[in-house]
Design a protein that fits this description.
Elements lengths: L2 H9 L1 E13 L4 E6 L3 E8 L2 E5 L2 E5 L4 E4 L4 E6 L3 E12 L2 H10 L8 E5 L4 H17 L2 H25 L4 E2 L2 H12 L6 H7 L4 H12 L3 H19 L4 H7 L5 H12 L3 H15 L17 E2 L8 E2 L11 H21 L28 E5 L4 E6 L2 E6 L5 E3 L3 H6 L6 E2 L16 E2 L8 H7 L3 E4 L2 H7 L5 E3 L7 H12 L2 H24 L7 E7 L2 E5 L8 H7 L6 H7 L7 E4 L11 E6 L10 H5 L1 H4 L3 E5 H5 L3 H17 L5
Helix pairs in contact: 3-4, 5-8, 8-11, 16-17, 17-23
Amino acid sequence: MQLDEQMKCWNHAAVKVLDIRRIVMEAGAQLSSYTLPANGFIYTIRGSAVLQLDGQTYKAERFYMLHGAKGSSLDIQTNEDFEYILLYYRAFLAFPSYRKKWLLAQPEVAPFSLQYGFAPSSPLGLLRYLDELEGAWIQSGSLDLLHTKSLFYQFIHEMMVQLAEQEIKTELADPVKQTLRYIQNHYREQVTLDFLAEQFNYSSRHLSMQFKRQTGHSPIDYLIQTRIAKARNLLLRSDATLSEIAAEVGYSDVYYFSRIFKKHVGISPIQYQRKMREEAKTEDRPLVISESSIGRRWKSGYIDYENHYQYIDGGSTPMKRRKTSSSMIMVALLSITMLLAACSSGTATTPAAGEGTGASSNNSSTAVSSDTGSQTNKDNETRTVSTVKGDVVVPANPKRVVVLYLQGDVVALGIKPIATSEVFNGAAYKSELEGVNSLGTWFEPNPEAVIDLDPDLIIVPSEETYTLLKDIAPTVYIPYEKMTTEERLQSIASIFGKEQEAETLINNLNSKVEESKQTLADAGILDKTVSIVEGGLKGMVVVESKQYGRGSQALYEYLGMKAPEVVQKKIDVVSEAGGSNLSMEVLPEYIGDYVFRSVYEGADNLTDDPIWSSIPAVKEGRLIEIDFDFFYYSDIYSINKQLDFVVEKLLAAPRAQ
C-alpha cells in the first residue's frame, strides 16, 4: 500500500486505543511467538534488541518504531536491558461510502494491517505523545479517554510526517503466512475460520479465498490435514493410547477423531498403525514419516466458510477445483451463443437475460432499487424483476432454478430447485432437497457445473457469485445480509410471482409467534432471561445480537425474550452479528435463567468442567443443546422449525424461580 493511500485511510478512520503499557526486559530475556492481539506500535526507549515480526528481522536500537498487524507473531531477543512502549489500537473505516469504495477497489487488503519499522528523524516528538498517551490512559476517566483518542490522532499525524520524510516502505502482513504459522503452532486448540479471520483482521470469506488461492486448500482443510499428519506420526512413533493421541492433535472426542481419521486415510487409526508397523517389519526398515500435512486433496467435502469444521455428505455434483481459464471460456462461448440467438430472433430491444440495466427506456423510474419487484409480460412469458443490479428479465414460470444459500426461502415457497450450494445435514429443509445437485460452497460455486445444468434462473446471495454466474442465465442478486427474514422472502417471492404465498407464510409465522409467546407467558417462562453460547473448554462465545444466528432470531427477535443485563445492553444497540469470546472463568456472569448451547460433532464435553457445571442453569437442568446445522439458517422455513424446537425445550425444562 502506498503511503498516500494509508494517509487517506487514517483520514476516514474511527479509532479506539485498547491498551498502552511500558515494558522492561532484562538482558538475555526472550519473548517467543507472541501473537499480537490487535494492531500495535512498539517504540523502543532504551537498550537494543533483535525483533522478529512474522519472520522479518528488525534491529531495534534506542528510539526505533515498529508497527505490526493483529495476529502477527512477535519474537524479541535482548542482549542488554531493553525498554519499550507497546500501544494497541483498533481502527476501521468509519464512513460507509468510503468503506464500500475501498472494499470494491481492494477487498483483499485490510487497510491498517501494515508492517514497517524505522528510526524516527525526530524521536522525542513521538515519545512526547506516547508519554502523554500513557498518562491519560492511566487516569482512565471519561474525559481522559477522550484525551487519549485526541493524542492518538496527533501521534499518528507526527508518525505519518516522519514516514513521508524518510520514504519508508510499508508492506502488508501476509494473512496466508500468518494463518499457516498459526495453525502449525495451535493445531491442538479449537480453531475456526471465523476465529482465524478475527485474529488477522480479515473477513472470513477473503481469508478463505486468499488461502485457497495460494495453497489450493481452505484453512480448515489445512488444519484437519495437519492434525491427521501429526496423528499418523504419533501412531507410528509412540505407544500412546488413541484417546491420548486424539487429545494431543486437538480432538476431545476419540470417536469423532477416529471417524475423521478414517474419512481421510481410508482406514481406522488402529488399522493404520497395525498395517504400517507390519509393513515396516516386512521391509526391515525403521519407521520414518516425512510428508507434508498438505500433500494431497482429501476425498470429503467440508464446510470451510463457517464457524466450525464439520463434514457433510456431498450432492450428486462433486466439488471440483475451478480452473479460471476454462470457466471463462465456457461462459464466454455461452454468452456468444445467447447473443447470436437474440439477434436471430429479432429481439434486439429486449435486455439480455441476466443483464442488469439499471434503467428502462419505457419508464425512467426503474432506477436501481434495494428490493426486488416484478412485472409480468404475458406475451413473452417473462417477468421483469427490479434488483440492486437493475432490471432483470426472468422466465414467468422457471423450471430449472439454481439457488445459492437462499434455498430455505425457495423451498418455503413450494419450489424445488435443480441445484443448490451445499446444505448442512441438520438443516430443517434438508429432506426437501433430496436428489438436488450440490454445487459446493455457496461463495465459490462451480460455473462449469452450473452451465452443464442449463438453468433458466439463478438466484445468488453476493456480488462475487453474481459476477461469476450472471452470463449463464438470468441471475438475480439478493443482498440477504441487509434484509430481514420477511423482506428476503418477499424479494424472492416476487421473482416467481408468489407474493401472495409469501404473505401467507409471513402471517402464519406471526400467528405462531404470538401463540408461542402466550404459551411461554402462561408457563411463567417468557419473562425469564436466556443466553446463547457456543464453544468449548478454551473459550466460549456469548451471542450478543439478534442477527448472530444459533437461535438468536427465534429467541431474541421473534419471541422477544431477554438476555442477562450485561448481554442485553449489547443486543439493544448491535445491528449486525455480534458476540464476545469469553474465558470459562467469567462466563457465569453472562448466563441467564436458561442457556442454549450450540453444539456440533466434535464439540468439547463440558460435563466435568467445574465452572460450567456450577452455573445454576446448567446445574438445575435448564441447559438446552441446539444443533449447529439446524440453527445456522435464518430463512422462514428454518425459523418456523426453530421456534417449535425452542418452545418445546423451554416448556420441558425445569422452571426457573
